[in-house]
Write the structure tokens for this entry.
Amino acid sequence: MIVRVSEAVVRPERFEAFHALIVDAVRDFPANNPGLLDHEVLVAPPHSLLYVSRWRGEEDLVAYAGENWRDEPVVLPGEEEYLLAPLRLRHFTSAPLD
């Protein structure tokens, strides 16, 4: 499993509108992306919003985000007008607790 985290630093005056945009945009992601196991939007107003998605594996991420999935975030049209900085993208895998 790969956990993908996209972090947005949002203009405070646009935070609620951006939150609504993201929630609406990702609502159908599970139905449209069979490798998406789970996802959620996490907020820390007034600046920070995370989109966290859990994927079955690399080929599922390639199907969703393309060959450059490790380095290039998926950006919605017009998204940049809400942001103070480019999206920050990180990936995590499970590590044994032993």
Observations:
- The chain has a mean pLDDT of 95.
